[in-house]
């Protein structure tokens, strides 16, 4: 049987019913299924082989993709921007409302220090990013937390170099 259509089987009227085959029909069914079972086993082996081949190809694809991606990153145009230009771009990223820097990792300038080593260096050495700061001191603050805030404010303002300072409390 080459088309595997159960509707064309000699047993089609009995398939999906509660029919109980006779002994002769059982023998006929067994003989008829020998080729089909062998074909099924052969297909399962072919599928297993194809899956193994696919797994090998997918692993190789991932290795090649990682190699290409790592090297493409070097081609990124942002890598060609001079540090001075990036510093100016960073200054333009500062919040304008409020016009003071915030100690918040989701906003410039602190956000810019989390991108990569080079951006961190540029941000930390650009005084205009650090010459303004809003300092929030909650009413209930432990001595330890207060000391950490003071150290953070000092570090922030030291980065401003000799620029005038703008502080909001």
Give a description of the structure.
This is F-box domain-containing protein. It comes from Rhodocollybia butyracea. With 169 residues, this protein is mostly helical. It is built from 4 helices and 2 strands. It has helices at residues 23-74, 83-92, 117-124, 143-158, and strands at 132-134, 166-168. A two-stranded parallel sheet has the order 1-2. The longest helix is centred in the first third of the chain and has 52 residues, at 23-74. The protein is elongated and about 105 Å long. The mean pLDDT is 92.
Characteristics:
single chain; 169 residues; mainly alpha; two-stranded parallel ribbon; 2 strands; 51% helix; 4% strand; elongated; F-box domain-containing protein
Short description:
It contains 4 helices and 2 strands; from the N terminus they run H-H-H-E-H-E. The protein is mainly α.
Oligomer: single chain
Strand order of the largest sheet: 1-2
Proportion of residues in helical segments:
40-55%
Shape: elongated
Summed over residues and divided by their number, the pLDDT gives a mean of 92
State Rg. 36 Å
How many strand segments? 2
Q: What is the tally of helical segments?
A: 4
N-to-C span: 87 Å
In percent, how much strand structure appears in the residues? under 5%
How is this fold's topology laid out?
Blueprint: H1 23-74, H2 83-92, H3 117-124, E1 132-134, H4 143-158, E2 166-168
